[in-house]
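User: Can you predict the 3D structure for this chain?
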Amino acid sequence: MKTGCGAFMKREEDAVRLAEVMVETGKRMGKKTVALITDMDQPLGRTAGHAIEIVECIEVLSGRGPGDLRELSIELSAWMFYLGERTKSVDEGRQLAGTMIASGQAKEKFKQGIRLQGGDDRVINEPQRLPAARSHAEVPSPMKGYIAYWAAAVRKRKIRSITPSGSSSASASAIASKKASRSQRSITIRTPSLRKRRV
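Assistant: Here is the predicted structure, written as structure tokens:
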């Protein structure tokens, strides 16, 4: 359950309330259900857009990629392993997720999913095969400085789990908010078209 300025549930307390309803619904249907409350006050990873987000996913499955995306991916995987009874605890699930990434099993499973859906799994090793924006614009900065705001307020939030008992607890360290980062002289924005964008 995402919460923050970029999510349907802007306020964390509303996200928690909805998550509790969803978990209770799953419980009534005899399903193991957990909801994770995650931060959407800022973009996840470094990119936005279908193909370039897939490239980031491939990076994560290769043991690289942005730290916040890696952390959330491992946390979600850990809970799925635990709920699917592949592991006896969420901690074991995290370890298994890390092992599967390190061994290449996770990336191979992604390739298998692409093949099963009739896709071209060569994109895993050759991401340049993915579609790319036809246009891009460079937005020069008049001075050196910091990006202090990027589509959302910058603040720290913890991943919280909502369990069938209705209790909530922090189940991971805080997702590190993107600290204001030094900008270069310009930022390249790749877009499907060159409409005016406020940056």
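The domain at 2-132+156-177 is CATH 3.40.1030.10 (Pyrimidine Nucleoside Phosphorylase; Chain A, domain 2). Residues 1 and 18 are 8 Å apart (CA to CA).
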